[in-house]
Q: What sequence folds into this?
């Protein structure tokens, strides 16, 4: 049996929302414990260039998250490399169970578990995950130096990743099921002007093709959504950039959710449907989904938690 530890504030998640909540709650002398989760630093650790973080005209995503973690530690937050696998919000103190066997009890909980990449759900996609199929161009683009790749998606993330892949690949084919993209206009302009990028409009990927010995992708099968005709697009790598889903599994049967699984918070606050439980960042945000808004919500969550604890 692992040990049991109590804290006034337990922060679950370690992106901009989690680390900012740790900074503010530590400064409020709440002695918070932050459990980082499977991806310390969150999505920014797989983002290379960040150009919209105030105060930094240009910063590497992983570097920014290292600085945030150091800041939280310097303020007095305890940061633990572990994963919360179960959370009981039915009674106080709230109880969280970690993979390490440690049990945490807390007077208040701040959820900052973020969001995760969505997949197409194809059996062949699952077969080649890690062997040519990826949801992170910035993680795996290097492996396709001098090769052709395919990427599917239509939002900002897809365009950013397609442009990033041109640093390595000889050709990037971007597949989209519509005839227009939903990405920002400035991003689209960069995309359409790039000589290495080719668009395949009105198509969807129905199958990932490849070899089994050694395992690797050789092409994707794309179907025209208007005519039904299929074609095989040769590639060594296939990248999925169709958005993200909130990581709300811990609380899906305990807190009120909306918009496909995002934790619902009271307007203008980070208060959830259970008093003493607060949520911040991409876990709650289906509109903005920016590092700066996540950090702002982390600040709000810490202040909300401080006020809650002061009243109890």
A:
């Amino acid at each position: 049996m692992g040990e049991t530890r109590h804290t006034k504030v337990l922060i679950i998640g370690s992106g901009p929302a989690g680390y900012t909540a740790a900074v503010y709650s530590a400064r409020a002398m709440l002695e918070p414990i932050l459990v980082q989760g499977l991806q310390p630093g969150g999505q920014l650790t797989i983002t290379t260039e960040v150009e919209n973080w105030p105060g930094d005209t240009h910063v590497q995503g992983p570097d920014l998250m290292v600085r945030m973690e150091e800041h939280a530690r310097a303020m007095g937050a305890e940061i633990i490399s572990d994963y919360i696998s179960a959370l009981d919000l039915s009674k106080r103190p709230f109880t969280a169970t970690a993979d390490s066997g440690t049990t945490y009890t807390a007077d208040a909980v701040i959820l900052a578990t973020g969001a995760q990449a969505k997949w197409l759900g194809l059996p062949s996609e699952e077969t080649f995950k890690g062997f040519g199929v990826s949801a992170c161009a910035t993680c795996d683009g290097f492996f396709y130096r001098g090769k052709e790749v395919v990427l599917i998606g239509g939002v900002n993330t897809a365009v950013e990743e397609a442009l990033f892949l041109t640093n390595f690949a000889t050709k990037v084919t971007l597949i989209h099921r519509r005839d227009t993209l939903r990405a920002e206009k400035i991003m689209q302009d960069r995309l359409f002007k790039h000589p290495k990028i080719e668009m395949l409009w009105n198509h969807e990927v129905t199958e990932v093709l490849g070899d089994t010995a050694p395992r690797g992708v050789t092409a994707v099968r794309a179907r025209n959504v208007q005519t039904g005709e299929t074609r095989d697009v040769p590639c060594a790598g296939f990248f999925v950039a169709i958005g993200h889903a909130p990581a709300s599994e811990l609380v899906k049967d305990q807190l009120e959710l909306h918009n496909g699984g995002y934790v619902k918070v009271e307007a203008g606050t980070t208060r959830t449907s259970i008093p003493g439980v607060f949520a911040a960042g991409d876990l709650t945000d289906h509109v903005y989904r920016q590092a700066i808004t996540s950090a702002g919500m982390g600040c709000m969550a810490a202040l909300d938690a401080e006020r809650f604890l002061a009243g109890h």
Summary: The first helix runs from residue 16 to 27.
